[in-house]
């Protein structure tokens, strides 16, 4: 039985995800966690405070802490710096000397942070994931790296996913995506079923992930190895070899206090434990300085448990179980299952042989088919589930699929039980999904049903119907891509990406494209091909990006340049940029005003106190009344400032998002180049150049 | 939790009903290393008696019944109860321990036998409502009971009793004690009685030194009896209920007394019941007593329909304390204790609904050895001493037994150590290999059969018949004021689809229960079904799937109904496997679904202001009874008297409903006006359908409205205070951290800090809870003015606002007074 190597009580709450172990003198590990009231505590058991001899030190940040990291960011030093991220600021501290290293305004926010090396830079950087952006700062706080991503970054990890000997950066964000960055460029991405909340490198090309809907799993080179969904909420994951077999397992901590260790290969639970409080974070360190790494689990109320890898003699058996007995138990269960199944088949066979066909559920020749159709009127896609015989009626259809439903399933039920049920599907996003359809088919009024298991594929752009004249003119904006000789492949892609009744049957040489209209927005989309050029006509740059990326994936294009013209989006973008300027100006002015007011406050306090000393009560009262008024004013100002701040953040996010959208109109190097050039243009405030880059992809 | 037991799988059979497994007593010639045999009956009608040899099942005999086995009891003389009596349908068969069938008795009863007890020539049986007593297969006594008989046993109530009395455990929460064909007395417990068993050293575990000690006869005072009863003359029984309570009953000549009780409604539970997140344990489906802890006092072994097995022991107090807990995938249908796998370590033998027979052995897991011949020497020594104990009998034996218990493990461990670990492992691994091979063969055969099926019957693998056996219960869970739908099948579940034409709320299994103790959460943790809801349309007010992620055969779903709305709930149960079939089950949602029967009126009833609804007309008693059945749960189907009287209480608010009716005249009284109007609507609708004239008259007591508002007030105030309390948490945490102590804080604040996670969880639930409460108040308001013939529709939005935003009791009372 694996038992914790040590337990500690920090006597302070630990905020979820905000714990790290740093060696601030280069030698002794110190558990550092964000706690309530904007403070950070540092537990240094090896080196006590020289004045108070206390193990615990507190740092007052006085801001809402959003991320925490520790690591060597100055390549000349061996000491870890402590990095603390608040909503829009980043602090770097030298704990040993109790000094600031740098302080940086990060308007995009600090949602996730990690210290690591980006390949193109030969120095360690503090990588900060914010709203749609990722930044890297060196030890002086200078920005050395910048790129954009699709949504707010929730977690960062380094892992050599493609085993090329270089570490890739993995970024999990709120738009369900795990993007893998090679420097500024996204080399691949995987779409999951919910917001990504945790990533953990395992061995080699394997990494674990955790989602907001309680799913955890493991990927190997972008292929999912396994996943498990739970109704609980996962709060932290880490990779650590706990059973001593040389392969790190996926360790997960849950809000109900459970700690689970699952095999990275099979997902099988090999150890579990329960804390009496929510798990807040999981970190790794040689905390006792005896040369053995431990995995340290931090509870939300300050309980800390550390586990050492199991001894070899436990033979990977951490749960104090008689392995053979357990195996025997599972096998016996499996045997019983098989026996039951065999019996059921044989019984069915017997029943069939005895000729009581009419006593059966439904005619044994029944077939059930599915078909997809787009309905303009109901603004949805219908999946029709049809039985082939009138005696077999479809009572209910239950579809399991990722991403397209609010939950994981969608049910259609017909108490009347007709021969067919049409299931309304209206995915909110353009995603391709595999539908696992369970159709419950039975006789009229029967209480037993046969379950047909069918699968159907929902095309990525299923929510588009063929355009009609009343849909108005074609979209004025477009993006043009040169695909050259690959026209037949493009046509094949179109057939797979849109609903079958949208694409004409004879996609022969005469087929030059299609005009469709979105069932969600009623806006038009055109995909036209001519002379080796594909034109995507739409007013929505995001949609154009989706189409381009899907096309690239289908054609396996690693490099693609394009020309884009999105006048309406660019006009809106110009407004956003103007708003950013305006909000920035307001912010500066308000900061100045606040400084004035705080000076005034100091004066009033002095005056009031003087009056009190002199016994001039009337005067004192007057001063305090003024003070009160000023205070109210300040609070009002503060509200305005937060409001301004929120708007600014939103606008900045839009700017980052625009760059991301522009990048997605290209593939390969062109994609990476855009991000870098746009950043430069924004930094130099060259709006004209920025627009040109977005349009042509070149400076 | 100081008892450590290891699970061993023995056998799997067809699905089993409750009380269909017994452990036979040890044979007469007390040879060394003797072990006990087990007899099990399943729903295919097979009776299988087997022992365990070297970890393998060795059959003693197999018999068969024409119908599904519904009960197995051991009979014989009081000294030697080793005859196996099996009931199936209306037939009883009996086998000797060697497998000789010596009795086949067709009772010619009109109902299937579900409960039975046997002693000497006497057989007591219970059908659904019929109680019968046969002597030498001749009908001696019989009785028609008011509500369903769930279990039956017979005990001697005192030393002077010439004959044992039958004791019936009934659905209507009553335990009835009979002499002949008459009910001598009856007593109420806090839930429908599912199981009864004698609390003693007897029962099946004859393995102990006390095996010959007959406890059906008045027992010499055992320590527990002294403590629990004070009176030695009373017979002691254990009972277990559908809502998870078990406890002790003491029966003497004239009355039944209740002793200790576990899982009942304590004061704290009552307080918590109106709040969300208060979960209940599963119904007690199996009970037995055996001294597993070897402390001289028998422990109580509890099996529940949620698959959990617990052992409760008595330490210093007279209240039992849990000392072992484990959970299985299927609900427990029987549990017994004995020596089955080893002659040295006693174990609990358990059967589950899906037909798994397994045991929990007290042998340390690392030493379990299925070679079956370890510790032989130790066993011999041991039994020698055991013999002496038997001779001494009674209390002496018990003392010996407990002393022996201290020695046994040590001796056995020493002996076991002699056998090399590796050798044992080898034996086990061999077994694993054998089973693996078996599985491979089975798989191949299954593939072949499937292929044959596909080619000869149906290429789509369409099933010709559905062989799915579903055990399901749909019962009100009082503490939570919601329904628990339990579904269990004989194979692993894939998913369950729920559909309903009545609006109801699917209570999330986990997130709602953050306020539970860790232990409770752990139990619920084991069900890992993932809920997913579909947006609802006009005819489907609930559509949801529960996907089962592990190999569970059982699923519990919690649903909260809204009183006044009625209709059907459909569940489609889909198991794993091919051919794949689904089974539908329909449950009726009654208009007053959250009410439960009260065995007796509380003392405060008289003081409550009651409104009255009176119905008169040409209806018959049976007609009115059927309408009441439609509207309320827990009403027996049959009419048993000229005037029917029932009392109900609302599990959510605690309001009462008193019904009394006879031919042509019915009176319903309640302190909740809405309850009465709901009832009237149902009766009105049914009466119109049948063209029966019913005249209704009301006597509205205005005090009852204020009374209701006062009842709801704390709930509303609590919900309204929640948002305030949530805001306080962060601030208080900060204060706590800065100051390092909270002693100086107001107790209310300390309370907030202490229960922060609960408060947060409840806050997350608040919108739904508040909706529910607001619904009740609005209904009450509308009902109040309905009687006055005033339409208040336009004022309802205002009331809604008042309740949600600026609630105060005074304002609400004021609002109710105005039109």
Could you provide a short overview of the structure?
The complex is a heterodimer of chains A (699) and B (819). With 699 residues, chain A is α+β, with helices and mostly antiparallel strands.
Q: What labels would you give this structure?
A:
heterodimer; A: 699 residues; alpha+beta; seven-stranded antiparallel sheet; six-stranded antiparallel sheet; B: 819 residues; five-stranded antiparallel sheet; 13 helices; 43 strands; 34% strand; globular; cell projection (chain A); coiled coil (chain A); cilium (chain A); BBS2_hp_dom (chain A); cytoskeleton (chain A)
Structure description:
The complex is a heterodimer of chains A (699) and B (819). With 699 residues, chain A is α+β, with helices and mostly antiparallel strands. In chain A, helix 4 (567-614) runs antiparallel to helix 5 (617-663), helix 5 (617-663) runs antiparallel to helix 6 and helix 6 (669-683) packs antiparallel against helix 7. Chain A starts with 5 loop residues before the first strand and ends with a helix. Chain B is an alpha+beta fold and 819 residues long. The chains are: A alpha+beta (699), B alpha+beta (819). At the A-B interface, helix 1, strand 30, strand 31 and strand 34 of A face strand 1, helix 5, strand 31, helix 6 and strand 33 of B.
Beta strand count of chain A: 40
Helix vs. strand class of chain B:
alpha+beta
Q: What proportion of the residues of chain A form beta strands (DSSP E)?
A: 35-45%
Oligomer: heterodimer
Mean pLDDT of chain A: 85
What is the CA-atom radius of gyration of chain A, in angstroms? Answer: 31 Å
Query: What topology, given as strand order, has the largest sheet of chain B?
Result: 38-40-41-42-39-43
Main pleated-sheet profile of chain B: 6 strands, antiparallel
Biggest pleated-sheet summary of chain A = 7 strands, antiparallel
Give me the secondary-structure topology.
The complex is a heterodimer of chains A (699) and B (819).
Chain A: E1 6-9, E2 19-23, E3 29-35, E4 39-43, E5 56-60, E6 65-71, E7 81-86, E8 89-94, E9 99-105, E10 112-117, E11 124-129, E12 131-137, E13 143-159, E14 168-173, E15 177-182, E16 185-191, E17 196-201, E18 206-211, E19 215-220, E20 223-229, E21 234-240, E22 249-254, E23 258-262, E24 269-274, E25 279-285, E26 294-299, E27 303-307, H1 323-353, E28 368-375, E29 380-387, E30 393-400, E31 409-418, E32 420-425, E33 433-442, E34 448-458, E35 464-466, E36 478-482, H2 487-497, E37 513-518, E38 524-530, E39 533-537, H3 541-555, E40 562-565, H4 567-614, H5 617-663, H6 669-683, H7 687-696
Antiparallel strand pairs in A: 1-27, 2-3, 3-4, 4-5, 6-7, 7-8, 8-9, 10-11, 11-12, 12-13, 13-14, 14-15, 15-16, 17-18, 18-19, 19-20, 21-22, 22-23, 23-24, 25-26, 26-27, 28-29, 29-32, 30-31, 30-33, 33-34, 35-37, 36-39, 36-40, 37-38, 38-39
Helix pairs in contact in A: 2-3, 4-5, 5-6, 6-7
Chain B: E1 6-12, E2 21-23, E3 38-41, E4 46-53, E5 56-64, E6 69-75, E7 83-88, E8 91-95, E9 101-106, E10 115-119, E11 122-126, E12 130-135, E13 138-144, E14 149-155, E15 165-170, E16 174-179, E17 182-188, E18 193-198, H1 223-228, E19 235-241, E20 246-251, E21 256-262, H2 267-273, E22 284-290, E23 299-304, E24 308-313, E25 321-327, E26 332-338, E27 347-352, E28 356-361, H3 376-392, H4 394-418, H5 421-456, E29 470-477, E30 482-489, E31 493-500, E32 504-507, H6 518-525, E33 529-533, E34 542-548, E35 554-561, E36 567-575, E37 581-589, E38 595-597, E39 611-617, H7 621-631, E40 644-650, E41 656-662, E42 665-670, H8 673-689, E43 694-699, H9 702-739, H10 747-754, H11 756-787, H12 796-804, H13 809-817
Antiparallel strand pairs in B: 1-28, 2-3, 3-4, 4-5, 6-7, 7-8, 8-9, 10-11, 11-12, 12-13, 14-15, 15-16, 16-17, 18-19, 19-20, 20-21, 22-23, 23-24, 24-25, 26-27, 27-28, 29-30, 30-35, 31-34, 31-36, 32-35, 33-34, 36-37, 38-40, 39-42, 39-43, 40-41, 41-42
Helix pairs in contact in B: 3-4, 7-8, 9-11, 11-12
């Amino acid at each position: 039985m694996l038992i914790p190597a040590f337990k500690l009580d920090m006597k302070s709450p630990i905020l979820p995800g905000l714990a790290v172990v740093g060696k601030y003198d280069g030698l002794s590990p110190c558990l550092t966690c964000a706690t309530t009231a904007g403070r950070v505590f540092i537990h240094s058991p090896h080196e006590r405070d020289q004045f108070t001899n206390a193990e615990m030190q507190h740092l007052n940040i006085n801001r809402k802490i959003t991320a925490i990291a520790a690591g060597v960011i100055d390549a000349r030093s061996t000491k870890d710096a402590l990095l603390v991220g608040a909503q829009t600021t980043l602090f770097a501290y030298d704990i040993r000397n109790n000094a600031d290293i740098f302080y940086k305004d990060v308007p995009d926010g600090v949602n996730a942070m990690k210290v690591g090396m980006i390949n193109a830079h030969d120095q360690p950087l503090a990588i900060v994931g914010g709203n749609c952006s990722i930044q890297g700062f060196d030890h002086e706080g200078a920005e050395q790296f910048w790129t954009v991503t699709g949504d707010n970054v929730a977690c960062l990890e380094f892992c050599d996913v493609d085993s090329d000997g270089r570490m890739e950066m993995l970024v999990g964000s709120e738009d369900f995506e795990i993007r893998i960055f090679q420097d500024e460029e996204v080399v691949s991405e995987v779409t999951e079923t919910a917001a990504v909340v945790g990533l953990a490198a395992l061995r080699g090309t394997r990494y674990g992930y955790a989602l907001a809907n309680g799913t955890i799993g493991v990927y190997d080179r972008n292929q999912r190895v396994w996943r498990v969904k739970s109704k609980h909420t996962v709060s932290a994951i880490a990779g650590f070899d706990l059973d001593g077999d040389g392969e790190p397992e996926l360790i997960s901590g849950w809000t109900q206090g459970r700690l689970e260790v699952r095999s990275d290969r099979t997902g099988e639970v090999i150890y579990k434990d329960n804390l009496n409080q929510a798990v807040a974070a999981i970190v790794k360190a040689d905390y006792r300085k005896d040369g053995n790494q431990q995995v340290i689990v931090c509870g939300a109320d300050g309980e800390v448990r550390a586990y050492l890898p199991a001894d070899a003699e436990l033979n990977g058996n951490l749960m104090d179980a008689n392995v053979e007995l357990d195996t025997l138990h599972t096998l016996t269960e499996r045997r019983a299952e098989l026996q039951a199944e065999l019996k059921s088949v044989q019984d069915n066979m017997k029943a069939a042989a005895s000729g009581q066909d009419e006593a059966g559920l439904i005619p044994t020749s029944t077939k059930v088919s599915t078909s997809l159709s787009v309905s303009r009127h109901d603004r949805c896609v219908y999946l029709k589930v049809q039985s082939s015989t009138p005696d077999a009626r479809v009572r209910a259809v239950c579809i399991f699929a990722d991403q397209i439903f609010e939950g994981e399933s969608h049910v259609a039920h017909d108490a009347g039980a007709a021969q067919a049920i049409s299931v309304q599907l209206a995915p909110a996003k353009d995603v391709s999904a595999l539908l696992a359809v369970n159709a419950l088919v039975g006789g009229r009024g029967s209480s037993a049903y046969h379950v047909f298991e069918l699968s159907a594929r929902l095309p990525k752009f299923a929510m588009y119907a063929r355009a009609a004249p009343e849909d108005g003119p074609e979209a004025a904006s477009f993006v043009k891509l040169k695909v050259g000789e690959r026209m037949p492949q493009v046509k094949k892609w179109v057939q797979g990406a849109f609903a079958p009744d949208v694409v004409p049957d004879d996609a022969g040489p005469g087929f030059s494209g299609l005009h469709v209209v979105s069932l969600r927005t009623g806006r038009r989309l055109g995909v036209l091909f001519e002379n080796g050029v594909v034109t995507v006509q739409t007013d929505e740059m995001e949609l154009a990006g989706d189409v381009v990326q899907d096309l690239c994936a289908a054609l396996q294009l690693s490099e693609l340049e394009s020309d884009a013209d999105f006048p309406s989006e660019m006009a809106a973008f110009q407004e956003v940029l103007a708003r950013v300027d305006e909000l920035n100006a307001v912010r500066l002015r308000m900061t100045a005003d606040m400084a004035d007011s705080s000076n005034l406050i100091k004066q009033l306090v002095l005056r009031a106190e003087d009056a009190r000393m002199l016994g001039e009560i009337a005067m004192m009262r007057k001063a305090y009344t003024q003070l009160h008024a000023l205070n109210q004013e300040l609070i009002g100002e503060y509200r305005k400032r937060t409001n301004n701040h929120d708007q600014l953040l939103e606008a900045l996010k839009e700017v980052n998002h625009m760059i991301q959208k522009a990048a997605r109109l290209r593939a390969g190097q062109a994609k990476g180049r855009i991000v870098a050039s746009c950043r430069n243009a924004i930094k130099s405030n060259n709006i004209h150049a920025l627009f040109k880059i977005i349009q042509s992809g070149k400076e | 939790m100081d008892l450590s037991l290891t699970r061993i799988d023995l056998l799997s059979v067809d699905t089993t009903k409750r009380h269909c497994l017994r452990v036979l007593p040890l044979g007469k010639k007390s040879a060394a290393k003797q072990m006990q045999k087990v007899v099990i009956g399943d729903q295919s009608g097979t009776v299988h008696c087997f022992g365990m040899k070297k970890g393998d099942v060795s059959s003693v005999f197999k018999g068969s019944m024409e119908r599904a086995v519904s009960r197995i009891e051991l009979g014989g003389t009081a000294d030697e109860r080793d005859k196996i009596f099996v009931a199936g349908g209306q037939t009883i068969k009996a086998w000797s321990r060697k497998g000789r069938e010596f009795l086949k008795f067709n009772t010619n009863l009109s109902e299937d036998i579900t409960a039975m007890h046997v002693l000497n020539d006497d057989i007591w049986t219970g059908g659904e409502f019929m109680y019968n007593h046969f002597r030498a297969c001749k009908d001696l006594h019989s009785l028609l009971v008011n509500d369903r008989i769930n279990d039956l046993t017979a005990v001697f109530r005192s030393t002077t009793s010439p004959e044992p009395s039958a004791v019936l455990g009934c659905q209507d929460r009553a335990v009835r004690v009979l002499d002949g064909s008459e009910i001598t007395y009856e007593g109420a417990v806090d839930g429908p009685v599912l199981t009864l068993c004698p609390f003693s050293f007897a029962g099946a575990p004859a393995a102990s030194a006390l095996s010959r000690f007959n406890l059906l006869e008045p027992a010499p005072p055992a320590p527990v009896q002294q403590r629990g009863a004070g009176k030695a003359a009373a017979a002691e029984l254990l009972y277990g209920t559908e809502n998870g309570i078990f406890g002790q009953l003491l029966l003497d000549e004239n009355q039944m007394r209740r002793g200790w009780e576990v899982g009942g409604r304590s004061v704290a539970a009552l307080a918590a019941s109106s709040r969300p997140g208060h979960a209940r344990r599963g119904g007690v489906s199996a009970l037995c007593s055996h001294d597993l802890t070897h402390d001289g006092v028998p422990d109580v072994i509890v099996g529940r329909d949620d698959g959990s097995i617990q052992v409760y022991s008595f330490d210093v107090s007279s209240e039992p304390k849990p000392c072992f807990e484990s959970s299985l995938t299927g609900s427990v249908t029987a549990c017994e204790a004995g020596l089955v796998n080893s002659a040295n370590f006693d174990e609990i033998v358990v059967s589950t609904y899906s037909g798994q027979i397994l045991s929990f052995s007290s042998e340390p897991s690392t030493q379990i050895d299925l070679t079956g011949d370890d510790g032989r020497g130790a066993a011999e020594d041991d039994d020698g001493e055991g013999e002496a104990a038997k001779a001494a009998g009674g209390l002496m034996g018990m003392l010996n037994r407990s002393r022996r218990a201290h020695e046994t493990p040590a001796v056995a461990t020493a002996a076991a150590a002699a056998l090399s670990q590796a050798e044992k492992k080898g034996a086990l691994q061999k077994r694993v290999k054998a089973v693996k091979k078996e599985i491979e063969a089975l798989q191949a055969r299954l593939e072949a059969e499937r292929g044959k099926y596909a080619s000869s019957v149906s290429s789509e693998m369409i099933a010709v018949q559905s062989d799915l056996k579903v055990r399901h219960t749909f019962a009100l869970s009082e503490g939570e004021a919601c329904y628990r739908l339990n579904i269990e099948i004989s194979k692993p579940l894939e998913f369950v689809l729920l559909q309903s034409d009545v609006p109801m709320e699917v209570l999330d299994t986990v997130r709602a229960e953050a306020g539970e103790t860790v232990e409770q959460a752990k139990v619920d943790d084991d069900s890992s079904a993932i809920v997913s809801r579909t947006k609802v349309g006009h005819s489907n007010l609930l559509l949801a799937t529960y996907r089962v992620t592990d190999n569970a055969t059982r699923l519990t779903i919690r649903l909260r109904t809204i009183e006044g709305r009625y209709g059907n709930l459909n569940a489609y149960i889909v198991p794993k496997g091919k051919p794949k079939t689904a089974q539908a089950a329909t449950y009726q949602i009654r208009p007053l679904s959250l009410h439960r029967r009260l065995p007796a009126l509380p003392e405060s009833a008289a003081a409550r202001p009651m409104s009255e609804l009176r119905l008169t007309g040409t209806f018959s008693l049976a007609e009115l009874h059927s309408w009441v059945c439609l509207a309320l749960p827990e009403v027996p189907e049959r009419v048993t008297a000229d005037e029917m009287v029932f009392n109900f209480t609302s599990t959510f608010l605690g309001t009462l409903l008193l019904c009394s009716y006879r031919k042509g005249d019915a009176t319903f009284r309640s302190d909740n006006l809405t309850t009465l109007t709901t009832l009237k609507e149902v009766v009105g609708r049914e009466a119109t359908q049948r063209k029966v004239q019913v005249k209704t008259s009301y006597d509205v007591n205005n005090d009852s409205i204020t009374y209701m508002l006062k009842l709801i007030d704390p709930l509303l105030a609590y919900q309204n205070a929640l948002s305030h309390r949530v805001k306080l948490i962060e601030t208080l945490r900060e204060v706590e951290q800065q100051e390092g102590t909270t002693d100086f804080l107001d107790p209310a604040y300390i309370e907030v800090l202490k229960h922060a996670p609960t408060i947060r969880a409840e806050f997350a639930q608040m919108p739904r809870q508040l909706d529910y409460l607001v619904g009740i108040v609005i209904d009450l308001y509308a009902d109040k003015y309905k009687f006055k013939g005033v339409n208040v529709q336009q004022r309802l939005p205002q009331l809604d606002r008042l309740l949600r935003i600026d609630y105060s009791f005074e304002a609400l009372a004021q609002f109710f007074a105005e039109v």
